[in-house]
Amino acid sequence: MSLIITLYVREGIVMASDSRLSLNMQQTGGQGQTVHLSVGQSDSNYKTFLTPTNIGISTCGAADISGVPIAGYLESFINDIVVPQQLAVDQVAPALLKYFQTFQPPPETTFHVAGYKAQQQSSEQQIWTVDVVRNAVQRVNIVGQQGASWGGEIDILARLVQPVGQLDANGNVVARFPVHPIPWGFFTLQDAIDFSIFAIRSTIDALRFQPRAKTVGGPIDVLVIKPTEALWIQRKALRVT
């Protein structure tokens, strides 16, 4: 699992992701008991990608196909399909779904696809989600509105931004905590960058103290896409260790 987040404001689009690659395994213990394990295999996995045409793609969910990291397949998709066909952002999303559905079984993977579609006198901001298993492609944003979309290990972030209450032993709400909605409509591009890092860092930090699989971790990659350019705010680099 992973955590990816895409924020869209008037100034541009921000896409961010963590870097942890986890392996899910099963071990058989005494008396036929099955133990489920999630092991952090690597903190150098790429989950956000940029095409030469300034379209961003982020991935969460199943991180491999037949034991091979999905990052390599995404790079092949970009180089073999997106670039030769010069696909626009609204064409990349269905092409991505078609590409990954050729694998059997299709990976339980979700993608964010974001960029700008050239219009007659302007560029239209578009954000799409692609759910391979559910065979679904959906437009996320409404033209002229700001907002955010996230996927993967989202329960910690959801508790931070959604209404929260206290339940009694019977599941009845006995207390509601104050709600302070995030004013997405007033976000600047810098706010979007800061929130994307906050969202992933908060999840990583919370997982540290919770008795659960540490499925989000490692460096945080942050990509900014504007109508005329795209740039990495931060991105891990290959190095000699």
Description:
The protein contains four helices and 16 strands. The chain is an alpha+beta fold. The protein has a single domain, classed as Glutamine Phosphoribosylpyrophosphate, subunit 1, domain 1. A five-stranded antiparallel beta sheet has the order 12-1-2-15-16, with helices on one face. It has a five-stranded antiparallel beta sheet with strand order 5-6-9-10-11, with helices on one face. A two-stranded antiparallel ribbon has the order 3-4. The longest helix has 21 residues. The radius of gyration is 19 Å and the shape is globular.
Backbone shape: globular
Instruction: Give the SSE order as H and E letters.
Output: EEEEEEEEHHEEEEHEEHEE
Q: State the major sheet.
A: 5 strands, antiparallel
Structure classification: alpha+beta
Radius of gyration: 19 Å
Output the number of helix runs: 4
Q: Averaged pLDDT, please?
A: 92
Oligomer: single chain
Q: In terms of per-residue confidence, which ranges show pLDDT below 50 for 5 or more consecutive residues? A: none
Task: Give me the CATH superfamily.
Answer: Aminohydrolase, N-terminal nucleophile (Ntn) domain
Residues in helices, as a percent range: 10-25%
Domain unit count: 1
Task: Please name the CATH topology.
Answer: Glutamine Phosphoribosylpyrophosphate, subunit 1, domain 1
- What is the level-2 CATH architecture name? 4-Layer Sandwich
